[in-house]
Structures are given as structure tokens and as C-alpha cells.
Amino acid sequence: MDPKPTADENSDEIIDEIADLERRLAAAKAKLARPTTIDNAANSLAAESPPPPPPIPNSNSSATHFLLLLADSALPLGSFAFSSGLESYLAHSKAFPPLPSSTNSVSNGSFAAFLPVSVTSYASTTLPFVLAAHRDASSSAFVSGSGPRLARLAALDDALDATIVCTVGRRASVAQGRALLSIWERSFAGTVPAAGAAEALKPFVALLKSSSSSSSSLSRELPPPVSAHLAPLFGAICQLVGLSLEQTAYVFMLGHVKALVSAAVRAGMFGPYQAQKTLAGGTVQGLIAAMIEREWGTPVEMAGQRVPVMDLWFGRHEVLYSRIFNS
Amino acid sequence: MESPFPKSSSAPGEGRVVAKLQPEGGSALEALAYQYPLKLISPSRPADSTKSVLVFLLSYGGGLVGGDSVSLAVDVRPGARLSMVTQGHTKVFAPATNTPNLVTRQTMRAHLAPAAALCLLPDPVQPFAASVYEQTQVFRLAPDASLCLLDWVTQGRSARGEDWSFARWTGRNEVWAVSENNERLLVRDAVILDGAQPPSPPHMMPTLRESMHAMGVVGTLILRGPLVKALADFFLAEFAALPRLGSRDFRSDSDARRDAADEPVSDLEKWRRARLLTERTTRLLWSAANVRGCVVVKFGAPAVEAGRLWVGAMLAREGSVARVFGDHALMCVR
């Protein structure tokens, strides 16, 4: 046999082996190189556009920070104790089931029917007071002196007190308003960057304390000058921490919806996933936006109840046999 | 000194009522003036004139046409008592089709002097389909003045299928406490019934009819002052005595019957049981609350007559209105 082909065969094998070794070497090199490349890429990205460090203190980021605090369910307003008429609505739907002839969707005792009715009622009765308090607080009169500032916030509070014609609703509004005022005094006031903000509500607090301690000396049958309802204080405090009017209105209405949904969960109407689905849904977003648009220009004198039966459900919460909520 | 003659009121729809206390006791009219479309009538020899003077609030043709504006000023002098009633529902007609947004207005401004009393128990307002109505009533009460005010609205002409079919109805009632150097808003009860819905995706917002929750009439009764204090307390007590919703009777039927037979039942309790049964069968809902020295009663019922009978029964049972103002003050709620 000719040795050449053998040598050819041998060299072929060697060539194959070399190729194989080279391939493995390249793969090993690539393995070794990969992290290096990524590090390089990251380094080059960072080198290209380093984010400018935010100026501290930053009024914008502070407002965002307070927006998140005020929107937080953990804000100790005690909202979980109130169902805003939902509990009473359920009891009435059970005691007075809709007549067979009725095609009325609101009568059916479902949360889906109650939610928009509650939101429209809450917006038409309280949102104008939130907006007015925010606008007053941002006007020059508020900043310049405590006299007019106090007078306007107190007047809004007093006017709202005259508008809530039911014991249960008044109790719920005042309980949450006083809780918010305590949060402001004990937790927020000292940390708000805006100049003068820390002192802004002191006269109101003083008036509230003096009126609750010596109500008898003022007049024998007139109500105390201030009660500390939620809506006007919410508007004023949101302005003080730097929230815009739109943000304030949105957080206020969203807070109502969140409290309703949480009440529904606690009342066993649905579970937490359905609750989040409701909150995330387009219906809630659309509702809130529509309400803010509707009440944007409503003067507080024109605020009113759009769902008369809501007053009945609210007022008759007191005649429920068993209650897990305060409203 | 006030002129003894009726003051001329120049603008259409304006009116003025002044009631005074007569030297020999009893109330009389000091002035009564009105202009089309408002009409005021006081019966010349009312049977109960010793208790209060009666004025009928009327309108030509029995209703208000689209665009009508009625403005009434009422003065009740110290110690005087005035009752105001209507003759049938206050109908609110729709405006002409070429002016669909024309508002029909009714305004009342009443001033009650010290120890004066006003009783306003009219028929309900009945807004027809497509009507646009605004009602504002402002009552300014001096110390010790008394007010009994009923404001109610119906679904419209139910016989013609109307069911909250109007374009818009707003009612605002304000009660102010006034003294020489001070005035204070006590109650502002405002109801906005708007047929127009905000522009939102369909089926998101309930229609006005849906949000009325099958009620055919809703109303508000506001009470303040020494002469109606007993009545106000009566409403609060009856509200507190309502049976608890959702409570259960765990006794057996025979036990319950035996207990009921043993239990001595007062007249009031008998009346209350009958009334509660009627409330249940007519699906009437009501609540009462003390709001800054006024008692505000809210009620609603699927049938207008059920609402009328309920208010009438409550007022008649307690008796203050008949005692203070005379039976004629109650003619619209019987």
C-alpha cells in the first residue's frame, strides 16, 4: 500500500483535530470574554449619560412623596371603619328586594350598581369643598396672614357642616377630618418644605380646641364655629404639601373608592383580587375623571345631593340590627 | 311705619306676604301682593284664623310654564303665625322646544321675626318630562322663631309613564339664624336631580331614574323653633324606635303570640305598629337627624300617595301643627 494516502489520512485527522481544538479554544475565549464585554457595555453606557443627581431638597419630589403618602391606605384616617352607606344599602336591598317588575339596576344589591351611585353622590356633596379649600389655600390671601386664611377655611368647614343633613355622615366626615388634622399636626407640619406651611393650620386648630372646650359660652343654640370635616382640610393640606389641584381632587376621590372597595371586601362581597381588578379598571378611572370634570367649577353653595336615596341609606345605618362599620 | 296697603310689586312673578299679630290676638295679613304668573289668595274668614293666617300659593293655570320666574318675599312679624299651602301639585311644564334649556324658577325669601312662626306644607312639585326647574327657599329666623317646612318632588306624571323624566330639578332650602349683629347658616339642604349625565363611557353612570332607586317621591321636612320642638322631638323619638333592620325574632310563633297578649299596649304603641306595617308594605323609607338645632327628616316612597299619607299621619298624630297653626295648615298632607 502506498504510505502517502496513510500520511494524507493522518494529516486529515490532524487537521480535523486542530480545527476542533481551535473551535473549543474560541468557545472558551468567548466564555471568558463575555462578562468583560457586558462590563464594558455597562461602563460605556454609564459614561455616556450619567443621570444628574436630584437637587435636595426638591419641591417636585417632595410633592410626589406626599402624594404617595396621602394616597396610601396606611394613612391613619380610620377610613376602614366607614362603608359610606354600603352596609346600609346591602341591608336595605336584602330587606326590600326589588319587585319583579323592577328593572332598576341600583336595587339589586350589587357592588357594581352601588359604586357609581356612591361616587356621584360623594363628589357632588364634598368635592366642591375640597377644591375650594385648595384654591383658597393657594391664593395670596391665605399666605399673607392668618386672619383671612383662618376665616375662609373655617367658613368652608362651617358651610359643609350645615350641608350634611344626617348624623351618620357627619360623624364619618368629622372623625376622618380630625384624624387628618392630627396627622398634619403631629407628622407632616414639621417636615413640609414650603415656607410658612408649618404654621398655616395652627389658628384653625386653636379655634377647634376652643370651640370644643367652651361651646356653651358662645351662644346658647348656635353650633360651634368649626367641626373639622374631612373635605376642606384635605384640600388645604394637599395644597400645603405641594399637590396640584388636579392631584388633590383625584387622590380625594380615589380614597373614597378605595375605602368603598375595602369595605366591600370586609363585608364579604368579593375577594382581594376582584378588589384590585375593580380599582385598576377603566370604570373607576373614568368615573373619577368625569366627577372631577363635573365639579371643577361648582361653587360650594351649589353643592348638593344627587342621589336622595343615599341620604336615606346613610341616615338609616343607625337602624341596622348588626353593624361592622360606623357608616 | 309700614303702609297698611299692599305694596305694589312691579316685576312679573313677584309677590309679597306680610303677616302680623293683631292687637286683640290672632294673626292677620298686613300685606298681600302678587303679579302674574304668581297668585296669592287668603280666605277672608278662615275658621282657624285665631291660630294662624292662611295663604294659598297658586299660579295661573295651575302650573309654571317654562321660563316662568316666581319670587316671593315673606315677612312674619313678631309673634305672628302664617301658614302657606297650595291647591294641588305645583306642575312644572316643559319649556318650548326651541328653548329647551329655559329654566323655570321659584324663589322664596322669608324672614321670621322673634317668636314668629311659619308653616309651609305645600303639595309636592310635579316636574313634567323635559322640564327644567330651580327652587330656592331661604328662611331667616330671629331668636325663638319657629319653622315647619316641607319640600317634596315627584317623579312626574306617572299615569303618562313619566318617571323622573325631567331635564333637571334643583331644590335648595336654607335656614339661617339671625340676630341684630350676626347671621349664621344652620342648614343648607340641596338636592340636584339631573337627567343629563356627564360624558362618560356608556353604562358607567346610572341614569337619573336608576339612581332614584324606584322611589316615586322624595321629600324633606325641616323643623326648628320652640313651637315645633315637640314635633321635632317626636320625629327623633319615632326614628329611634324604628325596629332594627335585619333583626330576627327567635321566639316560636306561639310564644310571640303569648308575649304579645301579655304585654300591655299603649295607644301610641298600637298606632306605631300600624304605621310600621304601612311603612313596610308601601316600602317607605325615612330618617331623622338633629342638624345644628334643626331637625331634618328625609323620606322617600315608591308611591306619591304613600308619602303624603305618611307625612300627614306623623303630623296629625303628634298634633303640634294643628294646635299651633290650625287644621287648615295640614290640608295638603291629608
From TrEMBL, chain A:
<keyword id="KW-0996">Nickel insertion</keyword>
<protein>
    <recommendedName>
        <fullName>Urease accessory protein UreF</fullName>
    </recommendedName>
</protein>
<dbReference type="InterPro" id="IPR038277">
    <property type="entry name" value="UreF_sf"/>
</dbReference>
<dbReference type="InterPro" id="IPR002639">
    <property type="entry name" value="UreF"/>
</dbReference>
<comment type="similarity">
    <text>Belongs to the UreF family.</text>
</comment>
<keyword id="KW-0143">Chaperone</keyword>
<dbReference type="GO" id="GO:0016151">
    <property type="term" value="F:nickel cation binding"/>
</dbReference>
<dbReference type="Pfam" id="PF01730">
    <property type="entry name" value="UreF"/>
</dbReference>
Automatic annotation (TrEMBL), chain B:
<comment type="similarity">
    <text>Belongs to the UreD family.</text>
</comment>
<keyword id="KW-0143">Chaperone</keyword>
<protein>
    <submittedName>
        <fullName>UreD urease accessory protein-domain-containing protein</fullName>
    </submittedName>
</protein>
<dbReference type="InterPro" id="IPR002669">
    <property type="entry name" value="UreD"/>
</dbReference>
<dbReference type="GO" id="GO:0016151">
    <property type="term" value="F:nickel cation binding"/>
</dbReference>
<dbReference type="Pfam" id="PF01774">
    <property type="entry name" value="UreD"/>
</dbReference>
